[in-house]
């Protein structure tokens, strides 16, 4: 049938109308219809190739690196020797340089119930050149092993940089797939932001710390070559008074050192770093968070001192999400939200990454900070000063996926899906970054969800819809203060 021009116009108007209706309907958020073949995965057996002990007497194993200072010119190299302490020295040299340098570290050991650790070495290399590839060697004196890393560019507002996001990884076959997908991602993450829950050793009888060692060997293939920025989760607490183990975070803090003193923190469980154009604040949901506590006092100074003209991208990492619509762990982050959400809004945090819930979820920009006990204003609302909250606890651990979701999907939830995977945050410049999520069932280059992030500091108030939200927010704030 041939349509007249009037018919064509009517058809176009109708199509546009239907499009608007459809967009409106999906405004409340998307629950993915992706179908999984299974929800649970087993830990890889102890004799798996990914857990293989490197050959040679006293060969260094479980090699991993993290940032070693506040700016990115330092690297902490950590590894374990099993037979005897050996050397804690790292020999390193810049690519194309004959000059071999060395840095001296130290080692620690610990006991946990009936387990005795190997010799855990930590060595901080300082004053490296920015944007330079370095080779390094550990195991000096016996079996040496060589690795490499690349330092980030100097800190600055328009420095592009790509972060990987991994959480709740564990050591199952799915964990292996997640790590492989990250390695093979064409987005090429340069540093991993790890949102907590590492080995899940505490799921074994007596928190079998051998599973800490297997996890260290499993992740070495990535963690020896690029920094992992560590966040402590509940599976790092290892508090077991029934086993006589009463010092929280004992295995985690012995094995994973972070540069907390460089940001004037008094605990390795909360600290900050600058890297390229990002300022990253790591919080501990499982430490004291109340007013006047060490973490509170540190965060109070920390948020206020971030210079967004230097590092426009303000990113917070913590383990427990404060906006999640899954049944598992629902509202577990509420105490953190009550204490700190107002600072996330006040200081215009761009994005908060969390794990804990074994699934993926991305929020709208929302806040719920107007409540003052008597005003009744306890309601989540759109807020362009608020961060986007991304839950990425979908690394693939032995506890399986969190498939049960609260219904109906709350408005704050923009997209949710219970599948294993990882994320990539690709910062382009001071104003734009691109976040994407890859699910393990897809090819490494496939994005199952993605969003462009407009930097909150450089966000302009030109968008009328955003302006009206801002006005609404201001009005509520005035009401709350009244
Ligand atoms: Fe957790």
Automatic annotation (TrEMBL):
It catalyses: a phosphate monoester + H2O = an alcohol + phosphate. Keywords: Glycoprotein, Hydrolase, Iron, Metal-binding, Signal, Zinc. This is Purple acid phosphatase. Residues 162-360 form the Calcineurin-like phosphoesterase domain. The keyword Amino-acid biosynthesis does not apply. Its EC number is 3.1.3.2. Its cofactor is Fe cation; Zn(2+). GO terms for molecular function: acid phosphatase activity; transition metal ion binding. Residues 386-445 form the Purple acid phosphatase C-terminal domain. It comes from Acacia crassicarpa. The keyword Ribonucleoprotein does not apply. Belongs to the metallophosphoesterase superfamily. Purple acid phosphatase family. Residues 60-151 form the Purple acid phosphatase N-terminal domain.
């Amino acid at each position: 049938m041939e349509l007249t021009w009037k018919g064509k116009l009517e058809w176009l108007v109708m199509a546009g109308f239907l499009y608007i209706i459809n967009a409106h309907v999906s405004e409340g958020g998307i629950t993915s219809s992706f179908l999984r073949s299974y929800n649970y995965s087993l830990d890889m057996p102890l004799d798996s190739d990914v857990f293989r002990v490197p050959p040679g007497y006293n060969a260094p194993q479980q090699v991993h690196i993290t940032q070693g200072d506040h700016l990115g010119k330092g690297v902490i190299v950590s590894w374990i020797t099993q037979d005897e302490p050996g050397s804690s020295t790292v020999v390193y040299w810049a690519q194309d340089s004959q000059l071999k340098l060395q840095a001296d570290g130290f080692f620690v050991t610990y006991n946990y119930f009936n387990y005795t650790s190997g010799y855990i070495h930590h060595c901080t290399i300082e004053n490296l050149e920015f944007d330079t590839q370095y080779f390094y060697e550990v195991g000096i004196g016996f079996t040496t092993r060589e690795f490499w890393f690349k330092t980030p560019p100097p800190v600055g507002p328009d420095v592009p940089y790509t972060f990987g996001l991994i959480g709740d990884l564990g050591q199952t076959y799915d964990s292996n797939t997640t790590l492989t997908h990250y390695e093979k991602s064409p987005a090429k993450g340069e540093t991993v932001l790890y949102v907590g829950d590492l080995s899940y050793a505490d799921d074994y009888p007596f928190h079998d710390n051998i599973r800490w060692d297997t996890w260290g060997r499993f992740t070495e293939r990535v963690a020896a070559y690029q920094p992992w920025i560590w966040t402590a989760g509940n599976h790092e607490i290892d508090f077991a008074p029934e086993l006589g183990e009463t010092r929280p975070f004992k295995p985690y803090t012995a094995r994973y050192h972070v540069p907390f003193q460089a940001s004037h923190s008094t605990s390795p469980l909360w600290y900050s770093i600058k890297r390229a154009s990002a300022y990253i604040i790591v919080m501990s949901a499982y430490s004291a968070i109340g007013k006047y506590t060490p973490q509170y006092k540190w965060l109070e100074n920390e948020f206020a001192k971030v210079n967004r003209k230097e590092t426009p991208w303000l990113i917070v990492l913590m383990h427990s999400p404060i906006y999640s619509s899954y049944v598992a762990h629902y509202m577990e982050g509420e105490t953190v939200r009550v204490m700190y959400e107002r600072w996330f809004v006040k200081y215009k945090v761009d994005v908060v990454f969390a794990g804990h819930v074994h699934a993926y979820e991305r929020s709208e920009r929302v806040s719920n900070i107007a409540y003052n006990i008597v005003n009744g204003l306890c309601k989540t609302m759109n807020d362009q000063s608020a961060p986007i909250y991304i839950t990425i606890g979908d690394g693939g651990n032995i506890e399986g996926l969190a498939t049960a979701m609260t219904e109906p999907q709350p408005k704050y939830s923009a997209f949710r899906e219970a599948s294993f995977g990882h994320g990539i945050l690709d910062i382009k410049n001071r104003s734009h970054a691109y976040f994407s999520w890859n699910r393990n069932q897809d090819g490494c280059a496939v994005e199952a969800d993605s969003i462009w992030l407009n930097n909150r500091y450089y966000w302009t108030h030109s968008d009328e819809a955003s302006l009206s939200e801002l006005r609404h927010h201001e009005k509520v704030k005035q009401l709350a203060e009244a």
